[in-house]
Amino acid sequence: KDQVKTVSRNNIFVSLPGSDLMNAMFLRAGSTILTPCRKVHVVENSNEVRIWFQAIPNLRVYEVCGPMDVTFEGQASILNTTAFHNALSMAVSDWKKR
User: What is the pLDDT of residue 69?
Assistant: First the structure.
């Protein structure tokens, strides 16, 4: 109940991919999701975004997945903070226009 209440109050939701991202289903229309890609066995975009969130109208999704945006050492993901900051700035700018 508290998670639903907290998430539904957000306009921009930043989350790791995977099950962490599933609370985004409680975002209100016009919200934005920002998430990096991940590496399981290969580098992949979020299944949750592809299956669930791309189909929801009025919900923007930004995945930080470019070759210079995220690097991997073993199972660790190393996020380029400049790329993430740029994606977040775009998400905020886009959200303000709505």
Answer: 85
